[in-house]
Amino acid sequence: MTTLRRAIPADAESVGALVDALLMELAGIPSRRDARVEAAARLLALSDCVFGVLAVDDDGQDIGVIMLTESASIYAGGAFGVITELYVAPAHRSSGLAQRLLMEAESIGRARAWPLLEVGAPRQPQWARSLSFYLRHGFTEIGPRLKRPL
Predict the structure, then answer these.
(1) Where are the domains of the chain?
(2) Where is the N-acetyltransferase domain (predicted)?
């Protein structure tokens, strides 16, 4: 049975590698594993506002991850959660693992008294399956997210 556990700074290698796989799949970009491991180490050290959960299979292999960060806004009435990454290794998809990771994120949010979770869905229609997953689990569309490098 796959187990879920909170990610800690010592898990930076696993978290960085899983997020690297996610970003390569989503954007078709080359691996930047070392940079993502370094970023994971920095972020996981921010245990008061960044949260990670790893999915580990029976063989001890890390096969999924969800990363959350705490944000704040007036429209949310204060602090709320943002899912920044959610990834399940391809061989373990359609097994309910993403739903379990999402439920763990909701548990973290409830413990922190967040009124809501937000997530940015990947480009459509290419990643319609991802959008459908979130819609099936109670998320509603609020419009596209945009970014601007600084």
Answers:
(1) 3-136
(2) 2-150
